[in-house]
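Need a sequence for this fold. Nothing fancy.
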């Protein structure tokens, strides 16, 4: 195109074009409009015209981010203050939370950036905000725990440990309601935090500690009667010579150890052998009158 000297023209010159000054005047400056950035926002006026942004206003949508950064860095819409429509403005996402203003769920954890910030107090750019081993989504949707608190119930076990390792309730300090805290059952008493009665002796673990019996041993004193029955019968579960009165302590069974498994006491409690055994010599030297077990 050729233009007369002294006239002003506006045109879009494609990249790579050459501009030659034929005016003959050394003080005449011809400048490509491709390079002009009237508002100094980092976008040449020609690009602003293509994007329908205002070449005279650095921040066309007034969201606090200049058009050049929106187009060239963030990929956001310079004409919309909330490009992804997630309820968080582009400026807040970019400058406050570091989230992506073009994606509604920046960390891909299943929770919207807006909800993470305004409802759950979690980090929209981290899948597991508190680093407890559970994703924010799992904490909020599945378990009801706090995604910004490592140990929601403050029992000394992280939410991840409770759910993944011990199968305890991350919302209760005593998952099995046995009067012992989960942390102490695991670390101190070595009992099962999800069983009320670890040793199945009819006494709750907490009650055993109260009585001084062993919550991991059904018969603390080794007298053949489980602790629960002793307590029920008002005998001492820590004294092997103490028995509940309702137990018949007479002769229950008598085996002569002569190779027979017949109860000769008359109570009919005939025996049945289980496991590996061989007939052996008894203490009187009688062969095959005793039994030897592995």
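Here you go.
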């Amino acid at each position: 195109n050729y233009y007369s000297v002294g006239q002003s023209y506006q045109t879009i010159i494609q990249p790579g074009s050459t501009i030659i000054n034929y005016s003959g005047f050394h003080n005449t400056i011809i400048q490509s409009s491709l390079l002009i950035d009237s508002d100094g926002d980092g976008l040449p006026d020609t690009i602003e015209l293509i994007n329908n942004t205002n070449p005279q206003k650095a921040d066309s949508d007034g969201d606090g981010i200049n058009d050049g950064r929106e187009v060239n860095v963030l990929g956001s819409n310079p004409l919309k203050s909330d490009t992804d429509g997630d309820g968080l403005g582009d400026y807040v996402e970019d400058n406050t939370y570091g989230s992506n203003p073009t994606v509604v769920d920046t960390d891909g954890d299943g929770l919207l950036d807006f909800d993470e910030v305004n409802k759950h107090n979690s980090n929209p750019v981290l899948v597991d905000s508190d680093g407890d081993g559970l994703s924010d989504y799992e904490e909020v949707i599945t378990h009801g725990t706090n995604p910004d608190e490592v140990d929601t119930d403050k029992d000394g076990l992280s939410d991840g440990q409770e759910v993944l390792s011990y199968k305890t309730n991350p919302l209760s300090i005593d998952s099995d309601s046995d009067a012992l805290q989960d942390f102490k059952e695991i670390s101190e008493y070595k009992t099962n935090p999800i069983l009320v009665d670890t040793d199945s002796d009819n006494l709750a673990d907490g009650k055993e500690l109260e009585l001084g019996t062993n919550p991991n041993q059904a018969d603390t004193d080794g007298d053949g009667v489980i602790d629960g029955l002793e307590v029920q019968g008002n005998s001492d579960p820590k004294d092997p010579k103490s028995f509940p009165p309702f137990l018949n302590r007479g002769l229950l069974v008598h085996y002569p150890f002569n190779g027979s498994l017949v109860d000769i006491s008359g109570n009919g409690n005939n025996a049945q052998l289980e496991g590996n055994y061989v007939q052996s010599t008894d203490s009187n030297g009688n062969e095959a009158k005793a039994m030897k077990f592995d």
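For context: The longest strand covers residues 277-280.
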